[in-house]
Amino acid sequence: MRVFLDSSALVKRYYEEPGSDQVQELMDSATHLIASALCVLEVTSALSRRRRLGQIDQRELDWTRETLFEDLSRMDVIPIADSILDEALGMIDRRSVTTLDSIQLATALRGSPDLFVCSDRSLLQAARSEGLVVLDPASRDTQA
Questions:
Q1: How many domains does the chain fold into?
Q2: By C-alpha distance, which of 127, 93, 144 is closest to 8?
Q3: From the centroid of its chain, how far is CA 103?
Q4: Could you tell me the CATH number of the domain that includes residue 55?
Q5: What is the pLDDT along the chain (144 residues), one digit of tens a residue?
Q6: Cβ(70)–Cβ(33) under 8 Å?
Q7: Domain span holding position 113
Q8: Which of 17, 23, 110, 127 is the most exposed place for a label (fewest CB within 10 A)?
């Protein structure tokens, strides 16, 4: 199964929260993992924010960053090309999504996943509207 992991889902691999077990199971069982190059920035930002808030210490932050880059080296990380940005621009009007979510969704569509994994309700709805099968790992709710 080809699985696209949005940043909101991927961060659950590195920081325990609802849905972390589901994300790990998907990462272990998928035949092909796909992510946007945007995940590097978004996941790193989320983890750094947790460090600033005192939710993780520097050692944990270093481990999570190292693990993130190891994981991404085994994924199909789709770069943010001009064609992705063109599609994302259309998404903003068509689906009323944020700038970063439009890039995630345009990238997912490029990767042709069997499953789009995300924990952002508005992005899940937009992905569903684009014909993707979606899963919120925190709710384990898969919808076509």
A1: 1
A2: 127
A3: 11
A4: 3.40.50.1010
A5: 999 999 999 999 999 999 999 999 999 999 999 999 999 999 999 999 999 999 999 999 999 999 999 999 999 999 999 999 999 999 998 888 999 999 999 999 999 999 999 999 999 999 999 999 999 999 866 665
A6: no
A7: 2-143
A8: 17
Contact 55, 124 (CB under 8 A): no
Provide the token pair at 120: 């952002």
- φ/ψ region of 131 (left if φ > 0, alpha if ψ in -120 to 50, else beta) reads left
Structure tokens at 51: 């460090």
- Closest Cα partner for 77 from 68, 86, 85? 68
pTM: 0.93
Residue 118 CB-density burial (10 A; 0-12 exposed, 13-18 middle, 19+ buried): buried
Instruction: Report in angstroms the alpha-carbon separations of 95 from 80, 88, 124, 126.
Output: 19, 10, 11, 6
